[in-house]
Amino acid sequence: MNDPYAILGLTQDATDAMIREAYLAMARQFTPENQPERFAAIRAAYEAIRDLDKRARHRLYEKGKTETIDAILEDAACRTLRRRPSLDSLFATLRPTV
Amino acid sequence: MSQKKPATKPASAPSRALADSLLRAGQVDEALRISKEVFTKAPSTENLEHRMGILTRAAEALLDANKPIQAITQEAELLKGSSLLIASDAAWIRTIAGWFARSGRIDEALAHVAPLQDPKDATRLTHLAVDQAVRQKSNSGVPTEHHAGLAAILTAIQNYDAGNDEKARESLQTIGLQSPFLEWKVLLRGLIAYANQDHTRAIENWDRLEASRLPGRLAAPLRLGIDAAYRSSLTDVATEDLQKRSERLMEGNFLKGLRLIQKNLGREGSLSTAFRDAGSFTVTLKRVAPDLFERLSQCFYHAIIHHGQPEDLARYRSTFGPPADDPMFDRLEAIVFEQERIFEAAHAHWQKYANWLAAHPPSWPREMADRARAIVWFRMAFNAHNATLHSNPLLNAFTFFLNNRKQPEKKELKPDVFSCLKHAIDLAPDWSEPSLRLMQSYFEAGQFDQAIQTAREQLDRTPDDLAMLKELGHAFSKRSEFEQAVPIWKKAVALQPLDQELRVHLSYSLLAEIRQKLAKGNPVELRTELAARLSLLQDEDRVDQHCLSATLALKAGAIDAATAIIEQALATPDQRLATAYRLAVDATLASLKPAMKTKANKRLKDAFAIEPTPRETAETLRAVYRFKIGGFKYRGEKSHEKQALALVARCLKTVCPPEEYRELGFLLQDWEYWKELQHLSNACCGLFPSEAVFPYLEASAMFNRKDRPHRVEARLSHARRLAQKLEPERKKSLMAQIEDLEKLVAMPFDEFEELDDFEDEFDEDYDDE
Fold first, then answer.
1. Ranges in chain B, pLDDT < 50
2. Would you state the pLDDT for residue B377?
3. DSSP secondary structure of B220-271
4. Which of B153, B483, B641, B662 has the fewest CB atoms within 10 Å, i.e. is most exposed?
């Protein structure tokens, strides 16, 4: 996943303060000592959108640039295999209703 | 004899097949009517079985949809006791009772099966009732004693769906072994294990489920994926059915479609196949996984930038719709034209894109849209700067040689660099980079006043802008306006006290400012001022300060003080020659008495007469260089520089360790004394044949003196070979320098030319694309 907003669990309209808050919360949860790779991704995501200038640049030039079909496929496969099927979705697989 | 063909049966004639298809189409009432007609017209066993089948399927469908089944139960009642029934009447009675149970009418269901006198029926009907209650999330029709169990199960489901597994487990604790909800408890425990990737435990739980009950049916498509034993126990028909359910659970079978795209999207060449593959399933993908759809659209967007064709824009639009951030594809086309170095077209598209942003598209918050416009205008400034007459690099190279190695003329784009940068500044006044570039552009164009004004305006808006302070300090220093430069460097140092580079600039400017006043200033006041500045001077400027102080003392008539200072300066290691040089120049600049000047010149002449060491040479050249960049003009300046440069060849006569020559070599490289550097490094290659740095320095000098590339490359190869034997730290550093130079040697001339301009750090995004 390359979308910094998704990594930090934010929406596109997040403000500087919201971004910082989300970054600090995640950095506390995934420390560089315990989860260095995850922390690096969180840090990179924060750096990519930390202020208005970076957010505008990201949206203009970076958004989706590093996206690959391989990554999408991997996410789709993971979602299929690892998802938590809701009871409603399980009911929906039964014979078509009228 | 010919036989008469049977008449074709009208499509609308009542038939079992028609009833089946109507039921499949959801027309339950019509399907029931047709099956009734078929049975009434021909009351056979087959038609009765079919009628019962239709009733059963219709009842199932209505129950699944939580709709009333009264019409069906009435019809079903009529079939009870028929002599045509193959199976016992009891089976049909149990079926009808099951419908009652599932529709929340447990008492009616039990009354139905009472004549059969089978105790298992009550249990079975209770199970059907509770299963339906869980499915409908309602306790209507569930016996009161089971309400608590239902509530526990529904709470557990809610927690499981929300990912609160612990709370879900807690809720399930209340379900005992005799509870009709036990199957649901087992299903949920299996689901929790499945969601946590514990497939063994999931299988253990689901293995205990009854296949005929709802929990068992719900777990089946998941078991298919993880339980090999279960899979092998199924018939082909059951496997196929479960496979379909499993795919529905996967939110559509889009993995297959993505794999198809994967095959074609990465390939260079036409994107038409990839678009065709995408077109076949993107509608489903958008519905079931909108985030993946969005990401896929971005993949295609950037694939067009990298290797797309104009017709791909229409394909993109029809497959994904117009991109939200670039509906007219102006940004895409601008980037593509930049890649092709067709700056005029890129400029036009960026302008359109900026105009689109100016119209405030709903998805762009106003503040971000304005900043984005500023960034676009800044990028346009870059394009305007780099637009050349011939945008094609090959054509550029051809013209270059055709024009006897003259660079092609620049073609000015409209809006020009200045206008673009001003637009960017207007849109984002707090962003200093456009102001910085505008200031540099004015400075390069010789419009010094505008450059200073731009810098001052930006510093009014952002007073602590260190980059702008540095730029302004450099601008004043380059123009030898040290009185203006000093307060700027002072402020910069105050902002970044640990920045050595800033301190060096301040120290130099402080001395240069006093030196500028040597001729007309009051020497006593100047000495006092110099003393006051001591704390701000760098250690390497100490000798320079002594020389200045001595000259001021001489001018003020303090001969003894001056003599003491001069002796101290001359005694400083490696500074003998540089001190003599500075004193001679300062004597001229200060317009000292002729006798004093003569003495200073004689001291310099004597110093020059002794063969210098490389370090003395370096210090002397440093002094020459600093007078030169400070703009200090005096009679005999050229002659001094010539003599100082001649020291490079002379220092080769002294026997010194290679480090000293290496230091001198790098200084010559920094100050771009290429001829002397080539001479020194060439000689040192002979003196120290195993030293890798000298062939590198020689290559550097040759390259900058426009020697033939193959000759430069040969020296670099030699340096590379020798560098392999160096200790890791030095090897890494030198190899990086060798590689940088190799890149420059291999670079086409027009790109090389741009390196001198502000492309270097102007916009990293450009190179990234």
1. 1-11, 389-391, 398-402, 405, 750, 752-769
2. 96
3. HHHHHHH-HHHHHHS-HHHHHHHHHHHHHHTTSSHHHHHHHHHHHHSSSS--
4. B483
- Kindly tell me the burial class for residue B560, based on how many C-beta atoms sit within 10 Å of its own C-beta (0-12, 13-18, 19 or more): exposed
DSSP B613: P
Q: How far apart are CA B37 and CA B112, in angstroms?
A: 27
Kindly give, in sequence order, each residue whose CB lies less than 8 Å from that of residue B368, ignoring residues fewer than 6 positions away: A52, A55, A56, A59
- Inter-chain residue contact A93 with B258, CB threshold 8 Å: no
Q: Categorise residue B760: left if φ over 0, alpha if ψ from -120 to 50, beta otherwise.
A: alpha
| B209 contacts B189 by C-beta, under 8 angstroms | no
Return the HEC string of chain A.
CCCHHHHCCCCCCCCHHHHHHHHHHHHHHCCCCCCHHHHHHHHHHHHHHCCHHHHHHHHHHHCCCCCCHHHHHHHHHHHHHHCCCCHHHHHHCCCCCC
Q: C-alpha distances in angstroms, B649 versus B643, B673, B715, B734?
A: 11, 13, 21, 24
Q: Which of A15, A8, A3 is nearest to A46 (CA)?
A: A8
Separation between Cα atoms, residue B530 and residue B548, nearest integer Å: 9
How distant, in Å, are the alpha carbons of B11, B266, B315, B418 from that of B322? 46, 22, 10, 33
Q: Is A24 on the interface with B (CB under 8 A)?
A: no
Can you give the pLDDT at residue B688? 93
Structure tokens at B307: 């290797």
Identify whether A21 is part of a domain: yes
Q: Residue A15: inside a domain, yes or no?
A: yes
CB of B563 closer than 8 Å to CB of B546: no
Residues near B312 by beta carbon (within 8 Å), at least 6 away in sequence: B271, B272, B275, B304
CATH number reported for the structural domain that contains residue A11 in this entry: 1.10.287.110
Which pLDDT score, from 0 to 100, does residue B754 have?
47
Decide if A82 and B331 are in contact by the 8 Å CB cutoff. no
Question: Within the 323-382 window of chain B, which residues sit less than 8 Å (CB to CB) from chain A?
Answer: 325, 331, 365, 367-368, 371-372, 375-376
| Residue B16 tokens, joined | 């079992």
Output the pLDDT for position B84.
63
Angstroms from B285 CA to nearest CA on chain A: 10
The CA distance from B41 to B38, in Å, is 5
For residue B415, whether the previous peptide bond is cis, meaning omega lies within 30 degrees of 0, is yes
Fold agreement (B254-474, B657-769): yes
A37 lies in some domain: yes
Q: In chain B, what percentage of residues exceed pLDDT 90?
A: 48
Q: What is the pLDDT of residue B1?
A: 37
Does residue A89 belong to any structural domain of this protein?
no
**Residue type (1 letter), B423:** H
- Domain residues for the domain of A67 are 4-82
The β-bridge partners of A25 are none
CATH of domain B254-474: 1.25.40.10
Residue B108's pLDDT is 81
Half-sphere exposure of B489 (CA within 13 A, CB side): 28
* Nearest in space to B51 (alpha carbons), one of B16, B89, B100: B16
Q: Is B67 helix (H, G, I), strand (E, B) or coil?
A: coil
- Distance, in Å, from the CA atom of B349 to the CA atom of B331, rounded to the nearest integer, reads 7
Please give the CATH topology (third level) of the domain spanning B657-769. Answer: 1.25.40
Backbone phi, psi, residue A65, to 5°: -65, -35
Is B488 in contact with B473 (CB distance < 8 Å)?
yes
Task: Specify the number of domains making up chain A.
Answer: 1
Token pair for B762: 């102007």
Judged by CB atoms closer than 8 Å, whether chains meet at B261 and A69 is answered as: yes
A93: nearest CB among B163, B221, B428 = B221
